[in-house]
Amino acid sequence: MSVSGIASSACAAHGMRQAAMQPAFPDLEGKHPCFSTTAEGHAKAARLHLPVSPLCNIACAFCRRDFNRVEQRPGVAARLLKSQEAVEVVERALRLIPNLTVVGIAGPGDPLASDHAIETFAEIHARWPHLTLCVSTNGLQLPARIGDLHAAGVVTLTVTVNAVDPEIQAKITPKLAWERKRLDGIEAARRLIDSQLTGIARAAELGFTIKINTVLIPTINDHHIGQVAETVAAAGARMINVIPLIPEHQLAHLKEPTFIERHKARADAARHLKVFTHCQRCRADAAGVPGLSDYTADLYGDDLQTEPTFSHG
Known about the structure:
The chain is α/β, with parallel strands linked by helices. The chain contains 10 helices and 13 strands. It has one domain (23-300): Aldolase class I (TIM Barrel). Helix content is 37%, strand content 18%. Helix 8 links the parallel strand 10 (209-216) and strand 11.
């Protein structure tokens, strides 16, 4: 290669590194920890998760939801809150956490499988319109509920998309509840993927800021992350968070992805979307700056009784 060719390649590589360092969402950088690309932005703002959603409409092979105070992972909370209780928690949190900017709902079930999350968002938005409202969903009911989320003041959206190939998705989510019926296997997978992509496209049309969560599962979807990123990017997503599998439930026999496997999957995704790399795999009742501060015990105390009312539909 000539000297000029080497220089040109070096400049191109430098340009790619500079682009990777730019915030994905400048308006949210430092204001939403889960949509901030840089470590500095991630560490500035606190978020509050409200565990108001009791039901889930899909059954993922890796998902084991629970009520406890010790596990630090999605699908876990100390208890469920009613909408009014959640509003009171926000009021306390605003006094306790000076850098609180985001209120999100991410479980313990799926926020769109019942009305609890949307009702809670609407009440919070009416009282504190300056807060950024955020929802994390599996996307099965997203096309039907995206208008309700928009009306309730939600502006940031995370959709968990683990595959866009029904053969792969069927291994990850073998069954779901759809219109009062149980769907299994490929039929369930096709239904979920279609709802997710349709919902993402409609959310983009309404101006939502959209991030994708993808669980990296060795031997199942580890070769498929690039295709997921390309497909959801075409639908309207702008960021992806590749989350290493926590080996549990029906996938307890698998190993957590290695550093090299995580790096390769994120590199595959980065060809199509900005990649979020600061995920702490938060609880459904998390409060504070992810990985830096935790106000959960201060907000919820030790006198609350657990309410194990999970359901798959």
